[in-house]
Every structure is written in structure tokens, then in C-alpha cells.
């Protein structure tokens, strides 16, 4: 039953690739739909190779090393009973990889996607996964003896705010910064121009698929159902509440901003969808250790974090991110770790993490969130984890993308970008012009303009 639960949860997480695919396709222009869809597919494929050859071994291979694993490469000597965990963890690694594709969409060479997908899943991501999720990692909260835990607490990241979302979002930030903005994204004065995606329907379909897949992401991280059904059920409830609260808060804030700027209230469907994703990311670290009322607060604040960080990335950093992947995943991932260090409940921590013992094998209480009456040590550990992940990812991914740029493998030619990558790279548009011209929408609005 446990193996089936883990495998099925892994299948749900893998199905999130479909959600990312639809979200990316809807959020880019029609002339680049084929390109971003194929990139999502090949991210998944090359990510599987990287995870098989090196990634799983570095993350979960047997070792006494707190920094990385030292065995199980290419599944060597891995017993078949562990294969369910390999599959589940691969789906997580693939998720981190796919986050990057949205941030650098519409102007990046295909070769860059293939190389970074392998590099991320074979080296950058698995080392962070080892730190926090392996029993020997230096930031893990899964050790039994309190003396072995960093700061006496470890980092509470139950399903991957830091491991998955910060790694993917920060890698996207490095890639989007190095590849530069899309043509026409900023005017001569450096002010951003809107470049809307071609299908809100596809984008919101992607959001709902991702939300559905998150029920494998968070509850599945219990890694068992027999004896752990209460933990999985709590994760499912908290996931639902946080997503709902994040969507509502992001929608409300975007309405307030639009009214302040233009005098008109705009019900922003894309912003509401991204708000739901922001809530989902925000609860990922703490889904098993917070009460439902806290999940509502975490998700609600997550919507504000998304809107604020989206504007910060665009207007202050001048980084062009077509999907707001950096805001949703990197910044809300940071907030999620802080939230876990703040709202973690004493009883829930004891039910979802191993009991702690001292050197005399006597039970020791776990440190819990400062909001719940704790001493703040768990928050200090969370901030330490944020700094460590930020440094590790940017230290590797900025030079990595800079190297691709130096050798001419990062950005497509301006004329190819203007024409659209579907035509220049994939043999034609995802929406053949004959179909658009013959349809009612094309007749009324002009098929040629719609394609571009």
C-alpha cells in the first residue's frame, strides 16, 4: 500500500508537467506555442537522464557525507523496493527543471534547454535535495538525535519550498537575466510594455492541472499511507486552503492596483491563477506541520508576496519573465520556508517528523514556530536554508548561463525571435494560418495578426 501510494503520488506530480505545458503555452504568444511545448517535453526527458545517471545518487545515495551522496549512480545496487522512491523523487526533480523553461521562454535556443535540464537534475538540484531531505544532509530535520540537527532543528521543508521551488525559480532568474528581455518588452525609457499570452484558457487549464497535481506533491511527501493517513489528509486540506487564499488575495491586490493606476477595476484572471500557484508554493514546506487556519494565512500572504515580487522583478530588476515563474516559485518558496519556521505546530511536528532523542536516548521536544510560542530557532534555520540555497543555485546557474551566452548557445537571432520560434525552428505555426483565416474569429479579427 505504501509503495502504491508513493507511486501514485509520483504519477500526480509527473502529471503536473502537463499543467506546466498548458500554462507555458497559454502565457506565450501563439507564434511560440510549439517551441515552449516541446521544451517542456524535452526538459522532462533530459531531466530523467540526469536524475538516472547522477542525480538520485547525489541526493539519496548512501554516505556519511553531509554534502552529497556517494552511491546508487545509474541505479547501481539500488534494490527494487526503492524504485518507487526513485520515481517519486524524479518527478520532483523534473518539476524544478520545468520551472526554468517559463522564465526564459520565447527567446532562448533549444540547445540551452537541453543542457541546463541535464545539469540541473544531475548536479544543482540533487545536492540541495541531499542537504534537506537525506538523513545525512547538513540541513535535514529527519535525523533522530537532536545533537545532529543543524541549530538543533534542521530546516522544515516537508515537500520542497526550498528544494524544488527555490531551486527552479532562482535558476529561472539566472537564465532570464543572462538571456535578456524579449524584443519590445521595454521601451526606450526602460518602462515595461505588456506582451500578453495568446490563450488565457490554456493558462488557466494549466493552473487547475497543477493544483490537482499538488495533491501528489504535498500529501505524497508523507511517503507512506499506512499509519500516515492523518498526515497526508492534513496536507491535502492545507494545500486546498492555501491555494484558495492565495488566489483571492492576489486578485484583490491586483484589483486595487488597477483601480489606483487607471481608475478602473480589472478582474485579472491570469493574476488570480498565479495567485493560486503562489498559495500552493507557499504551503509546500509546512503543509504537514501547520493548522488549517495557519494555511489560510500562509496562502493569503503568499498572494501578496507574488504580486509584490512580480513587480519587483519586472520594474526594479528589469528581468523579463513571461510566466512570473520567478515570483511564484523563488520568492513564494522563500516565504514558504519562513512560514514553516513561524507557524509550525508542536504536536504536528511530532506526528510528521521522527521523534528526537538526546545522547542518553531520552525524548527531546522539537523546536516549533515562534508564532506558536517557540523560541525562534526554527526561523533562524529557515533563513539559513534560504541563504544556502540562494548562494548554491546562483553560484552555479549564473556562470552556467553566462557560459552558454559566451559560446552563442543561449539566445536565438533577433529575426528568428521576431518571426516566431515555431516557424524558424519547428516547421510552422501551432495554429496554421489557413485554419485561422477560415474560422469566424480569424475572419473578424484577421488571422495574420492573431498568429503573430
Automatic annotation (TrEMBL):
Its main location: membrane. GO terms for molecular function: ammonium channel activity. GO terms for cellular component: plasma membrane. It is a multi-pass membrane protein. Belongs to the ammonia transporter channel (TC 1.A.11.2) family. This is Ammonium transporter. One of its GO terms (biological process) is ammonium homeostasis. Gene3D superfamilies: Ammonium transporter AmtB like domains. Residues 5-431 form the Ammonium transporter AmtB-like domain. It is found in: Cell membrane; Membrane. It holds the Pfam family Ammonium_transp. The chain crosses the membrane at residues 6-28, 40-59, 86-105, 112-134, 154-179, 200-217, 223-253, 265-286, 292-314, 326-344, 378-402. Keywords: Ammonia transport, Membrane, Transmembrane, Transmembrane helix, Transport.
Amino acid at each position: 500500500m505504501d509503495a502504491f501510494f508513493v507511486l501514485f503520488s509520483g504519477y500526480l506530480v509527473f502529471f503536473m508537467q502537463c499543467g506546466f505545458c498548458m500554462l507555458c503555452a497559454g502565457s506565450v504568444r501563439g507564434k511560440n506555442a510549439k517551441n515552449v511545448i516541446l521544451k517542456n517535453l524535452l526538459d522532462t526527458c533530459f531531466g530523467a537522464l540526469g536524475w538516472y545517471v547522477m542525480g538520485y545518487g547525489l541526493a539519496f545515495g548512501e554516505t556519511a557525507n553531509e554534502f552529497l551522496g556517494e552511491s546508487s549512480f545509474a541505479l547501481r545496487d539500488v534494490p527494487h523496493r526503492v524504485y518507487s522512491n526513485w520515481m517519486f523523487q524524479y518527478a520532483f526533480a523534473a518539476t524544478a527543471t520545468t520551472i526554468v523553461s517559463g522564465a526564459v521562454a520565447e527567446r532562448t535556443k533549444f540547445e540551452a534547454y537541453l543542457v541546463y535540464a541535464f545539469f540541473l537534475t544531475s548536479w544543482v538540484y540533487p545536492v540541495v535535495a541531499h542537504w534537506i531531505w537525506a538523513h545525512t544532509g547538513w540541513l535535514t530535520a529527519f535525523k533522530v538525535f537532536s545533537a545532529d540537527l543543524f541549530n538543533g532543528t534542521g530546516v522544515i521543508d516537508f515537500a520542497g519550498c526550498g528544494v524544488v521551488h527555490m531551486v527552479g525559480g532562482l535558476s529561472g532568474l539566472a537564465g532570464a537575466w543572462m538571456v535578456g528581455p524579449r524584443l519590445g518588452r521595454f521601451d526606450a525609457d526602460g518602462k515595461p510594455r505588456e506582451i500578453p499570452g495568446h490563450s488565457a484558457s490554456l493558462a488557466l487549464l494549466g493552473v487547475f492541472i497543477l493544483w490537482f497535481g499538488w495533491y501528489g506533491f504535498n500529501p505524497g511527501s508523507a511517503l507512506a499511507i499506512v499509519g500516515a493517513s492523518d498526515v497526508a489528509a492534513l496536507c491535502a486540506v492545507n494545500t486546498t486552503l492555501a491555494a484558495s487564499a492565495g488566489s483571492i488575495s492576489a486578485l484583490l491586490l491586483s484589483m486595487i492596483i488597477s483601480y489606483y493606476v487607471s481608475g478602473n477595476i480589472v478582474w485579472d484572471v491570469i493574476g488570480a491563477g498565479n495567485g493560486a500557484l503562489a498559495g500552493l508554493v507557499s504551503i509546500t514546506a509546512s503543509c504537514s506541520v501547520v493548522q488549517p487556519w495557519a494555511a489560510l494565512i500562509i496562502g493569503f500572504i503568499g498572494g501578496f508576496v507574488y504580486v509584490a515580487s512580480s513587480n519587483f522583478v519586472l520594474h526594479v530588476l528589469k528581468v523579463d519573465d513571461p510566466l512570473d515563474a520567478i515570483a511564484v516559485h523563488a520568492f513564494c518558496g522563500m516565504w514558504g520556508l519562513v512560514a514553516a519556521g513561524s507557524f509550525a505546530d508542536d504536536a504536528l511536528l511530532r506526528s510528521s517528523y521522527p521523534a528526537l532523542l538526546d545522547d542518553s536516548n531520552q525524548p527531546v521536544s522539537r523546536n516549533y514556530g515562534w508564532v506558536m510560542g517557540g523560541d525562534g530557532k526554527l526561523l533562524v534555520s529557515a533563513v539559513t536554508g534560504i541563504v544556502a540555497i540562494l548562494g548554491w543555485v546562483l553560484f552555479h546557474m549564473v556562470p552556467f548561463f553566462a557560459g552558454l551566452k559566451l559560446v552563442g548557445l543561449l539566445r536565438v537571432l533577433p529575426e528568428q525571435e521576431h518571426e516566431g520560434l515555431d516557424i524558424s525552428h519547428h516547421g510552422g505555426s501551432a495554429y496554421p494560418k489557413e485554419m485561422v483565416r477560415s474560422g469566424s474569429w480569424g475572419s473578424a479579427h484577421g488571422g495574420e495578426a492573431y498568429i503573430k
